[in-house]
Amino acid sequence: MIDNRLKKINNWVFDLDDTLYPSNPELSIQMSEKICDYIQEVVHVDEETASLMQKSYYLNYGATVCGLVVEYHIDPHDFTRRIHDLDFSCLTPDPELREYMQKLKGSKYILTNGDHNYAVKVLRQLNLDDLVDGIFAIQQMGFIPKPSPLTYRKMLRTFDIDPRYAAMFDDNQKNIYGAKQAGMYAVWVASNDFNKSHGLVEDPNFCDSQTPDVVTFLKKMFDQK
Ligand SMILES: [Mg+2]
């Protein structure tokens, strides 16, 4: 049975990485290497320490850059400028996802803890850029990432969204719980094993719905209408 609340949704908010495309090891490796090089250069640590810092900051601060800002006072704009020059050809557009996103009534937004420029490039590579009405990335967040309640509030205010009529999709449990607490209809995208075992939220009602991927959810939603 389709949730009645979904029928009234007119704002669709999507996380980007591991939500609008499946986990992509090739892209992750490129990104990790850039971040580790940056940490080694700026914080003056060896490769192994840089790699540990990258992972622990990502888990504890929601984005590696935020950990570096808090712990080492780095310039976050310098960081984002330098690490997102990546080869995106490993990402493949999903025509089915495009079709379903086109069918969604209302506005579509991206809420990502990643860099704004990076989000633009990923969306372009996925052939979804023309379907998105706005991107709220780490810069717009003022480098305060999800799941901070401030971030959802700021995004909702910026795009003039009433959370009662908004749905959010995210692969991270803490982030989707944050969206639910902000009043949005929260769909957890259980896309990869890492996020099934990290960031686990104790509240069993941390989301309103869950799906292995966005297409499966939207297909079911449209089929039941
Ligand atoms: Mg994600």
Describe this structure in words.
Helix content is 47%, strand content 11%. It has ten helices and six strands; from the N terminus they run βαααααβαβαβαβαβα. The radius of gyration is 17 Å and the shape is globular. With 225 residues, the chain is an alpha/beta fold. It has two domains: 4-22 and 92-224, HAD superfamily/HAD-like (Rossmann fold, 3-Layer(aba) Sandwich), CATH 3.40.50; 25-83, DNA polymerase, domain 1 (Orthogonal Bundle). The model has no long low-confidence stretch (mean pLDDT 93). The longest helix has 19 residues, at 25-43. β2 (107-111), α6 and β3 form a beta-alpha-beta unit. A six-stranded parallel beta sheet has the order 3-2-1-4-5-6, sandwiched between helices. The protein has helices at residues 25-43, 47-61, 64-72, 76-83, 95-103, 116-125, 149-158, 173-181, 193-197, 214-224, and strands spanning 11-14, 107-111, 134-136, 166-170, 185-189, 209-211. α2 (47-61) packs across α3 and α5 packs across α10. The chain binds magnesium ion. Residues 15, 17-19, 171-172 line the site of magnesium ion.
Sequence-ordered SSE layout with sheet pairings:
Layout: E1 11-14, H1 25-43, H2 47-61, H3 64-72, H4 76-83, H5 95-103, E2 107-111, H6 116-125, E3 134-136, H7 149-158, E4 166-170, H8 173-181, E5 185-189, H9 193-197, E6 209-211, H10 214-224
Parallel strand pairs: 1-2, 1-4, 2-3, 4-5, 5-6
Helix pairs in contact: 1-2, 2-3, 5-10
This protein binds magnesium ion.
The site of magnesium ion (MG) has 6 residues, from loops.
